[in-house]
User: Fold these one by one.
Assistant:
Number 1:
Amino acid sequence: MKYESQKIAYAYFAVAMALFAIQVIGGLLAGLIYVFPNFLSELLPFNIVRMLHTNSLIVWLILGFFGAAYFLIPEESEREIHSTKLAYLQLIILVVGTLGVVVTYVFNLFEGNWLLGKEGREFLEQPKWVKAGIVVAALIFLYNVSMTVLKGKKTAITNILLLGLWGLALLFLFAFYNPGNLALDKQYWWYVVHLWVEGVWELIMASILAYLMLKLTGVDREIVEKWLYVIVAAALFSGILGTGHHYYWIGTPAYWQWIGSIFSSLEVIPFFAMMAFAFVMVWKGRRDHPNKAALLWSLGCATLAFFGAGVWGFLHTLHGVNYYTHGTQITAAHGHLAFYGAYVCLNLAIFSYAMPILKNRDPYNQVLNMGSFWLMTSGMVFMTFVLTFGGTVQTHMQRVVGEYFMDVQDQIAIFYWMRLGSGIVVVLGALLFIYSIWVPRKEVIDAGTAKTPAE
Amino acid sequence: MSDTSLIDELPGELLMWVLIISELLVFGAGMIAFMGVRLTDPVGFAEAQSHLHRTGAAFNTAVLVTSGYLAAQALHWRQAARRGAARLALIGAALLGVVFLIIKGTEYADKAAQGIGFETHPFFLFYYLLTGFHAAHVLAGVGILLLVSWRDDPRNIEAGAQFWHMVDLVWIMLFPVIYLLG
């Protein structure tokens, strides 16, 4: 660790991993409710469990991004973070807000209260005081990292990272607008969620991946930057108007069907470019970095993001296809592999890279960490296939043949059982990952022995 | 490595090529979709097409190609250190872009007067999407041409001309597909 303030990332990563554990356990509960529909129905109804599963995912991923920014910006800018105190204050605000949401939701406190209660929305559902807290925390964060970058060295990686993080914070402001019209509510909701995961988060992903490639493979910065700019251009070109693929059936004009189909089909390109980038860098790289686990997660991230976000996204993005598949288990298959590949693996890659450095020791216990990669990944890929096949059967029976929703659900129960099985594997993998990061202390491995080839 | 040298040999800005290829993919996909949907209703499409102004569009083709010629000349002149001539050519190219927009605008106004909109017929959905998206690029191109006539570094002029030729090329493909083929 070159800069003392990089230590901030340690606290962020710790909270992120705790929420990661809660998220996958929430997923396990939801998977159980699919096969035992009355399981916990009084205590924790399905809608609450689902909310916990998806929202804790978003929150821990963002905490991971914040931690990654605090970790890599000092190294890139070659100076300490502007204010360590503000960084911890920001984390405290976010943790209090998160706990506030969970408690308000689970016990339905302050019902009907404008400031403290729920807003009655399906998504972007936080009490207003939490939304305000998120904005304050985001402002603190942006001030803190922007001041650091402005006073220090500016690199393509920090520029793109800051662009992504500013976009993330500014787009969240749409969450404050809560129109009575449900179609409008959805339209603005996608301004937040779509423009996050298929817009500015891709910038964050590309810049963190570029940082990891720079460190792990030792390729020239100039080459990394050229790739980075091309990836970012392709992501924004396709992703912004690609929002149209959410506007097929919510009452928006028909031209969105063609705008959405065409632009979102191109969204596969930046994900393909990121995969090509990661592998080309490793092939060209001359450095044999001892942290093999971080490299595995980085390559896994780029590959699984291409399949989950790119291929599985394209699978149902054309409006002629989506007319039949909308809201079936095909969507769930895409959602799981896309989030896992693009953003979960990315975070676990930077955790795997940074944590040994933050703890000031050699990259340790790579076997357990790499084992957790294969466990989680095989579980998630199996779940994706199961949900894809289940979704195909569901699409045919429900949308083509026209049988009733619940009758079809009974018919595809076997797929839900297999999904539960694969979910258990993912949870075990996640717990193994957390164990491998925090617990073992002794194992030390030798630095790579490969020699630099003659030039 | 062969791939880096290929990219290094590319004239102009790499990112401009990324943009141009992306634009061509979008317009190409739009035209393929248009022709695909036309197969489902050839008679309706032919009827809808008869409402278009072919002469105006043909004239506009000549306007854009001339404008593209001026942009190409501007780069030659700038490289031959004839800055004044280059600037005039770029401003001329931008003015022809404005002429294109005026003619296109009268066509849109005429359609609106006839009560023809996005929802009138699938033909017009594609007509408005494709030509409207193209017109937006003409507008952006006019701005870019004026910008590079002001900041007239040869590299800037080259990038501006690259973009303008893409706008030109897209129109040359749109014109026969939308206005002529039946």
Note: The mean pLDDT of chain B is 94.
Number 2:
Amino acid sequence: MLQSIFYGLTIGGILYITSIGLSLTFGAMRIVNFAHGMVYSVGAYGLYYLSHSLGLPFLVAALGSLLLAIPLSYVIERLVIRRLYGQSIDYAIVATYAVLLIGVDAIKWIFGPNPLPISDPVGISLNLGFLEMPVYRLIIIGLSFLIFVGLSIFFKKTIVGKIVVAGLQDREAVRSLGINIDRYFAIVFVLGSALAALGGVLYAPLSTVQPYMGFQVLVLTFAVVIVGGMGNFRGTAIAAFSLGLIIALTGRIWGPAAEAMVFVVMAVVLIIRPIEV
Amino acid sequence: MLLSVENLDVHYGSAQVLHNVSLHLNPGELVCIVGRNGAGKTTLLKTIGGFHAPSRGKVSFKGQDILGLPPEKVALKGLKYVFQDKRVFGELSVRDNMELAAFPTKEPLSEAVAKLVAIHPKMEKLLGSKAKGLSGGERQILLIGRALVGAPELLLIDEPTEGLAAIIIGQIVQILLSVKSKLSMIVVEQNLSTVARLADRIYIMKEGAIHREITDPEIIRQPSLYENDL
């Protein structure tokens, strides 16, 4: 049981890190951004390429992978997302889904369609007798907590964070003060995308990297955003860890239902609190 | 002339909501726009503020054509929009709200806060409070205080007394009159007794057009003389 809770917290940590950017773009810009899944995959494949193909140490490869995702997400924002502000949500779905498909095909073209393994970079476990905790998973939980604290400070204490918080509530009112809100949303978009890439980096050693991993995480992160509330930073964290625990605990009872339970929870939330798009 | 609006047409899809609207504002003037719900008052104000693109017409501010500029650029030119519905940034503190207003204008936060406190000293005690906890009147005062940051020359204020108690309306009117010497204002207002206390001139709007302009102070002070025109 404790082992399942521990694994659930790891899944929750990765879901949180991956979801926060999606929550912001969904909440602030009202854009359903499927390209988020592509950036997540790029993070994982970047790690694979830099660590396996070039032989760089894990930390350097992870950092390099994030640095690769930042200009990529900037290009996506400038060429695709920025043209979707204020447009119908349908356009956003079609345009960003196209970006995701292009990304998947590009990955298959470069790396092939087969799953590729990345080993646990730490490879040590803490054995408490009743609970075995891989240190790498502990690092993921710790890192997600640090990111939560860091983002909380960012949104409460920095002017960029305050502008985004205000823009989430009332974009027009921010513009009426003389602030070009789109510029700040773009910064946050890149930040959120970098976090998605970090999610991909962190998840890769727990599983394998494969071309469709972006699709799989996307449905889970959308569930997190819907359960936690669009643009709700604290809600996203609570939802991510709760759903992570639900996946792990359901998986312990009946494996095939693990991820399905996430959508049961999402459905219940939607019934209680429908989304206005 | 500070502001000139000429022959403005605005459409929402295929529906025309403003018809050939023209008005002007002189420096130091406080002009009220009155009319029933749906007359086009807010649409007119938002079009001047850059939030709506008209299908025809011209808007000049200090002799410069501002039509087509985004709202943030219009604001930085000294034309500030104050929304109706008391739209403060509720999750931020009162001080943070002022910080956001000060940021694009490069005005020090202390000066921005001083402007807010100057129009309503009680706001000093509320600086650390979240704006969502403010009363309706305090929210409206915060909105006016935010708009005063920088060096605005014209405020576009939409329904500042809507939903407020009579005593609070009196405070808002006093605040608007106190800042009137420093800048010009266009105020959309439905409460005609408030209009009578505030306005130098009145435009009455009906069905998306300017129906009547009232310039005579004697008439302005007696709403009974024009309330049937709404």
Note: Residues 172 and 178 of chain A are 10 Å apart (CA to CA).
